[in-house]
Specification:
The structure is a homodimer of 410-residue chains.
Chain A: H1 12-28, E1 33-36, H2 39-46, E2 51-57, E3 63-68, H3 70-76, E4 80-83, H4 90-97, H5 99-102, E5 109-112, H6 119-129, E6 136-139, H7 141-149, H8 153-174, H9 183-196, E7 215-219, E8 257-265, E9 268-278, H10 283-302, H11 309-322, E10 331-332, E11 335-336, E12 341-343, E13 350-354, E14 367-370, E15 373-376, E16 380-383, E17 386-390, E18 395-397, E19 406-408
Parallel strand pairs in A: 1-5, 3-4, 5-6, 9-19
Antiparallel strand pairs in A: 1-2, 2-3, 7-8, 8-9, 10-11, 12-13, 12-14, 14-17, 15-16, 17-18
């Protein structure tokens, strides 16, 4: 049964490098242990997404305590794997395996991905590990999110494959984008093409209560209907239980069709937006669309290592204000997104964010989706989005679809 | 812009009934407040899935404090909506709105959906609300999950629509299930058909680190490869970053093709499994398949109000043991699922579970997916799954696809 062999995909040196960098960060922050709980973070550090707890000591060898499947985890990662066994015995297991950290007289500082770990599991872990007397449990997610900002070439090649899949799928599907087709029908077609190219069927997102499958395709005014989703466009969606993205309304001529899509291939996502129109856009919408391209190109030029993330947002705000479009930038009224772009990688909402508060410099290896958009209640949303890799010389677009308004005949 | 009107979908009396039942449960448990945070729970209780906190007092009028979109929440629910505003001021806001519960001399018992709320948000909430001195924060998810077990006719009609979509899509797609097509290609086709029928693109799941888009289609031995997923089948998946469900391997003749699929329409999911074969199954697999149908029909007969959930699992275990199939039931070796079925509704992993520990009686209005399956390492997984509504007289299948092994010609 050779065909059922599970191969280790991740290069061994990448796992060693990531664990090493996490341990350096832990030492700098005087953290004794990182107990990783989330599937995505565990995958990042080990190469395996099986279910369990990855125990990373500040120095020395980590152990992946696996609930299920232990056998498969052993195939997927070079890290030491061990059966988790009874959760109640977990502290005793750890004391046995790491006596220098969890022995009787120790009170280690233990970091966890508390931004995603459910509170109930956190409370059980805290009790089990004897917090606050026998250990301190702190949030360490910022450490891993900071590590994950910088992509290796292995990761970039995966993001490039996702970018190619989106570009090819979009090109193929555009032939079917006609007046009268519903948003849902055309999105379904696009998703079908993405899926056949290896899209895993979801795009992972870290934010609580935020959901995304492949993005959105929305025609006209519906795109400007606000939603819970933390982005510049909303959409009527498929009812109150899926209140964003595509609806069953038909695409109409002479209105902007916002095509904000992505996919996830081999774990890595891409995110791109193009605006299409069947016929032509009104003058104000056309002017806003052109401004969005200009803001994208301005950002592209300024995205060199050392540029400050928050400044890129502030510059784009100023650029929309000087065009008289400040009220329409990234949403309208109370419901607007307060960013220009966001990191992408294993998740769609990675760091850095091009937003106030992110006063950190761009670094080589960051991958950022930049999405200047303008929202016009009653008319729709226009804009573009490219994903860029920050290189030494500046930003290189990973997005393959050419820029430019997509004009389709009736 | 009449077409952009957001209609209130949920019947007003259903919201009132659900809030009333939650308040009764709160009073019985001496809980003063339920602060609902999860999108699905908020939708269940209000009819809206906008982002925010739903504050339900033990008696009196709830308030939905909305982060985004306040306007849309106001369209979607009849409950009082109010802007959340600064999170730092949330305690002060609540003191003003509910002085009898959160006034200066009060220390209310506040329930939260701690099984899903991220720990970091929990800790911020606890600090903000002054726990443990000025309030007690407890997990109340069991209360809402218990309420949600019993479906109204409004919910059942939605599950029936999802069941019909799966049945129709499967029937259409079976014509394309041929030797040589890959699992991914055929799954993509099936998903395309589901999506066009209104599938929202994901099936919601409560369990941490558990993921499902539409299920799995797996041919032969790959189905028996274990995965992190808490179900009887695994699958090679699309690599270590999506290590379950479909792979890019081709479907072969004379091996079992496990088709375990669902969709989510208007918020409600369905879950069904059929086994197909191109050609014929070996005698032992055929015998196991027939036993799975027998176990399903046995369960169907015993699923009357009052039957004990755990007993249904124990009976199925006994039924597989008497057929000499105990080692193959619901997985193999260390990696097996320890249930016979599970509740479905807004989420795929609802209560009750037909498993040890669930010593509660079936009640009218429960909807349960029953999925006896047998796993044969090196050969595959065979089995069936129907979703049933518990009625006064017994179980009524909501699943529309007829039972029986699906035999396809070469």
């Amino acid at each position: 049964m050779n065909n059922l062999h599970i191969e280790m995909e991740i290069p061994a040196e990448l796992v060693r490098e990531r664990i090493g960098k996490l341990q350096s960060a832990m030492q700098a922050g005087q953290v004794d242990v990182y107990l990783v709980t989330q599937n995505v973070d565990i995958y990042y550090l080990s190469g395996s997404m099986q279910n369990g707890y990855l125990f990373v000591p500040g120095s020395g060898e980590p152990t992946f305590y696996v609930k299920r499947s232990l056998w498969r985890a052993g195939q997927e990662t070079l890290l030491r794997v061990q059966e988790l066994g009874s959760f109640k015995q977990f502290r005793a297991t750890l004391e046995g395996d790491y006596p220098e950290l969890l022995g009787a007289d120790r009170a280690p500082k233990i970091a966890c991905d508390l931004d995603v770990l459910p509170a109930l599991t956190y409370l059980k872990l805290a009790e089990l590990l004897g917090a606050p007397d026998r250990c301190r449990l702190i949030d360490g997610s910022g450490m891993i999110r900071t590590l994950r900002m910088i992509k290796s070439s292995w990761e970039i090649s995966r993001i490039e494959r996702a970018a190619l899949a989106v570009s090819e799928s979009l090109e193929e599907a555009l032939g079917e984008l006609r007046e009268g087709v519903t948003e849902l029908e055309w999105m379904a077609l696009l998703e079908y093409k993405l899926r056949k190219r290896g899209h895993i069927g979801m795009m992972r997102m870290r934010g609580y209560n935020q959901e995304i499958a492949t993005g959105m395709v929305i025609s006209g005014a519906a795109a400007a209907v606000p939603s819970y989703f933390d982005g510049p466009a909303g959409g009527l969606g498929l009812g109150a239980a899926s209140p964003q993205s595509v609806s069953t309304m038909a695409v109409k001529r002479n209105e902007p069709i916002l095509i904000d899509i992505g996919c996830c291939i081999d774990g890595y996502v891409i995110d791109q937006t193009r605006t299409a129109v069947i016929g032509q856009l009104s003058e104000p919408l056309m002017a806003a669309y052109e401004r969005s391209e200009q803001l994208l190109l301005d950002a592209e030029q300024h995205m060199i290592p050392g540029a400050i993330c928050s400044q890129l947002y502030i510059d784009a705000l100023a650029g929309s204000e000087s065009a008289g479009l400040a009220d329409h930038f990234m949403g309208f009224g109370a419901d607007r997104a307060k960013f220009l772009g966001h990191g992408i990688g294993l998740e769609i909402d990675e760091w850095p964010v091009l937003a106030r508060g992110f006063d950190i410099p761009l670094q080589e290896g960051m991958v950022i989706a930049v999405e200047p958009k303008f929202t016009f209640p009653g008319f729709g949303v226009v804009g573009v989005e490219n994903s860029y890799l920050i290189e030494r010389e500046g930003a290189r677009a990973l997005t393959r679809t050419p820029l430019g308004l997509i004009v389709l005949p009736y």
